[in-house]
Structures are given as C-alpha cells and as structure tokens.
C-alpha cells in the first residue's frame, strides 16, 4: 500500500464546551436548557489533523496546548487522536485558557470564543523536514495573517498549503487579500465566502476554492467553473467540526490527485460522519 503524504496542521487549539439540542438560541435576559452537553478538544487545526490521521496520513499538529486544569480535560482526546504533537508547546501555568462555547440546535449553531496568546509556536523549515510534511493546513485565516511566514516555510520544503477561513469580524480586507492568493487551496463555508465578497476581497485573489454548504453539499470553484456535489443525508446531532472533517477528506483526496468531484464526495462523507455525533472529533 502506498504511504499517504505526511501533513502538518497549524492553528489554535480550544477546549470546546458543547451544548446540543437547544430549543432555540438564547437571547439577553433569557435562559434555555440544552438536551445534551460535552467537553472536547476543539479548533479547526486539531480536528482536521485528527481526521487526517484517521484516514491514514502521518498527521502532526502545531498549536499551543492549554495548561492545567484544561490540560487534564483535553488529554484523552489528544491521546485518542494519535497525532504527532512534537511541534506543540504548552502555555505557561496561569495563562488565560482558550475556550469555545458551542451552541447547537434546530440545524444551526453559534459560538462564543476566547482567544489567548499566540496562534501557534515558532516554526521553521527544519521542523517540517523533521516530520516529513509535504502539505500544511492552516486552521483559520487569522492564524495565517498573524503568521504569514508559514507560507514561506512551507514553500521552502516544497509543501502545498491549504487554508480554512473561520469567521472573524476583525480581519481587514487588505490583509485577507495579501495572504489568500498565496495558498493552493481555500476552504470557506458558504457564509464566510459571501462575507469575503461583500467586504470587497477581489475574486482574482482566490485560489482553488471549495465552499462548504452544510446540508446542501459542497462546491469547488476553479477558473470560473463551479462543480457541485450534494451532501450525504444523515441525522445531524452536532455540526461542530463538520467543516474541519470535510477539510480532511477533501485534502486527503486532493493530495492523492483525485478528480475535484471525487474530492468533494470524500469531503462530504467525512462531514457527514462528524455531524452524526457530538463533538468535533470522534
């Protein structure tokens, strides 16, 4: 069997507090009760890395790991994922935690997130050579804007680069445009893509772009052509991490040089797997 390419995922790691089966989203001055609750490791870089590992790739993560007590909470998930953590650093004791509260119900979700500290540890080309990475996936646009040198580092070892978007109201159009054209593959969801166009990011800056559309499936846009693939129908329990799971499926097939339609199908299949259970990674 041919060995699958080694990958490195870079980005913030969170402790996800996930409330599911909400009858409605809360509003100021009101309270709602969740039908389910779970605590899991979160962050797009980790979830994509975990799914890539499950798909048979050598999969490494570069992220800042939380100090105790959150380290104890996420340790089981980190161990179960079987990803290479040698390029991770642990935040100093007493550091503010990075936490996301995920609210899921009625087929939609919302998040409240606290960022703290740097997006990722220092990296250089020797780190990528050490793990043999031929592809780098960056978990959120904000991470790449904070660390634009990640592109140069990846290129210096001949690695391809993919980028998720992840919603961020504070990103400037010029900063987005500067980094977007430098990646090989961009993986926003439908809402994020629409937002980028509305704030004036030029379409000429988009590389091969794959738009995640939830229950509607996914669409690849390349050189003006659109290729759509419908989603696999499943009972959705929690949509947290579904886009990151899709990323892993699409990237895995893309690295294998499958057709774009086959890449979309495989991405959709991993997204369907993710939504069938609570938490970003299973």
Structural summary, described in words:
The structure is a single chain. The protein has helices at residues 44-54, 70-81, 125-131, 141-146, 149-156, 173-180, 190-198, 242-255, 260-275, and strands at 4-10, 14-20, 36-42, 57-62, 64-65, 89-90, 99-105, 108-114, 135-138, 160-164, 185-187, 208-212, 218-222, 225-229. The protein is α/β, with parallel strands linked by helices and 282 residues long. The strands form three sheets. Strands 4-1-9-10-11-12-13-14 form an eight-stranded mixed beta sheet, sandwiched between helices. The chain has a four-stranded mixed beta sheet with strand order 3-2-7-8. It has a two-stranded parallel ribbon with strand order 5-6. Helix 2 (70-81) links the parallel strand 5 and strand 6. It is globular. The relative contact order is 0.16. The mean pLDDT is 91.
Rounded to the nearest angstrom, the distance between the terminal CA atoms is 25 Å
How many individual β-strands? 14
Q: pLDDT under 50 segments (min length 5)?
A: none
**Shape assignment:** globular
Give the averaged pLDDT, no decimals.
Answer: 91
Helix content: 25-40%
Q: What is the count of helical runs? A: 9
The biggest beta sheet, please?
8 strands, mixed
List the helices and strands in order.
Answer: EEEHEEHEEEHEHHEHEHEEEHH
Strand order of the largest sheet: 4-1-9-10-11-12-13-14
The whole-angstrom Rg is 18 Å
């Amino acid at each position: 069997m041919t060995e699958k390419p080694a990958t490195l995922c870079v980005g913030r790691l969170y402790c996800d507090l996930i409330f599911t089966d909400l009858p409605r989203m809360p509003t100021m001055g009101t309270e709602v009760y969740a039908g389910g609750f779970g605590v899991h490791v979160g962050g797009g870089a980790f979830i994509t890395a975990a799914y890539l590992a499950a798909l048979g790739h050598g999969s490494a993560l570069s992220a800042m790991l939380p100090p105790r007590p959150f380290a104890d909470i996420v340790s089981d998930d980190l161990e179960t994922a079987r990803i290479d953590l040698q390029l991770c650093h642990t935040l100093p004791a007493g550091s503010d935690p990075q936490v996301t509260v995920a609210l899921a119900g009625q087929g939609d979700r919302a998040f409240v997130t606290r960022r703290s500290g740097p997006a990722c540890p220092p990296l250089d080309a020797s780190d990528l050579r050490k793990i043999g990475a031929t592809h780098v996936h960056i978990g959120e646009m904000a991470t790449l804007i904070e660390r634009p040198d990640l592109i140069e580092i990846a290129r210096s070892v001949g690695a391809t680069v993919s980028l998720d978007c992840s919603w961020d109201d504070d990103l400037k159009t010029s900063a987005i445009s500067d980094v977007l054209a430098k990646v090989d593959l961009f993986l926003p969801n439908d809402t994020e893509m629409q937002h980028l166009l509305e704030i004036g990011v030029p379409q000429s800056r988009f590389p091969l772009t794959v738009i995640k559309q939830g229950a509607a499936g996914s669409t690849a846009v390349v050189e003006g052509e659109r290729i759509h693939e419908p989603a696999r129908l499943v009972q959705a329990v929690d949509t947290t991490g579904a886009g990151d799971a899709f990323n892993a499926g699409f990237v895995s097939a893309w690295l294998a040089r499958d057709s774009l339609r086959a890449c979309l199908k495989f991405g959709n299949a991993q997204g369907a797997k993710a939504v069938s259970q609570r938490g970003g990674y299973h």
